[in-house]
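Customer escalation, tier 2.

The customer says the design service returned an amino acid string that "doesn't look like it belongs to this structure." They asked us to rerun it and document both sides in this ticket. The original structure tokens are below, unchanged.
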């Protein structure tokens, strides 16, 4: 999609596209209302600024749009879609790594009442497992903030992917 075609979408269609990048109604509505954008960089900067203003309910809403890291059943299903693209390297992991990812993800969810969020793109399963091991002992408030930062990286990456064109794209540094 080009930026011009995005700017020309109806509000509902623009919001729908944005929700595919970050599953937060208020964020998507506010960003759709800011159109037209003059450049992808302007859109990315405004998206980042809006995300930094998100409250706990909005952050948790965004988290609810993600599959758990290492959810092999979803990744192998024909319905995997974006999860396979973002977590595809998990499929190559050993059973030991996958089982530990599952176990720690379950513990993480029990402790925090939200899933472990990490920008998985380009990360093999053992790296995501190491990150989960490092973060699992943090308090809920710390993890809410860690997850929000990771959600920001994910959103930026997805926005860039939405507007793939011949123009040079700014890159996210998770």
């Amino acid at each position: 999609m080009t930026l011009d075609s995005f700017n020309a979408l109806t509000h509902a269609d623009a919001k729908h596209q944005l929700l595919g990048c970050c599953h937060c109604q208020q964020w998507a509505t506010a960003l759709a209302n800011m159109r037209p954008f003059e450049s992808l960089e302007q859109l990315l900067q405004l998206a980042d600024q809006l995300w930094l203003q998100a409250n706990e309910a909005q952050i948790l809403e965004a988290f609810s749009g993600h599959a758990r890291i290492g959810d092999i059943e979803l990744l192998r299903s024909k319905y995997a879609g974006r999860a396979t693209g973002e977590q595809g390297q998990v499929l190559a992991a050993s059973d030991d790594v996958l089982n530990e990812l599952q176990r720690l993800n379950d513990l993480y969810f029990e402790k925090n009442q939200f899933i472990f969020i990490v920008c998985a793109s380009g990360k093999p399963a053992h790296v995501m497992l190491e990150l989960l091991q490092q973060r699992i002992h943090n308090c809920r408030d710390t993890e809410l903030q860690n997850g929000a930062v990771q959600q920001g990286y994910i959103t930026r990456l997805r926005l860039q992917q939405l507007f793939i064109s011949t123009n040079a794209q700014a890159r996210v540094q998770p």
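Tier 2 assessment: The sequence is consistent with the input. The radius of gyration is 17 Å. Residues 77-81, 165-173 have pLDDT under 50 and may be disordered. Sent an explanation to the customer and offered a walkthrough call.
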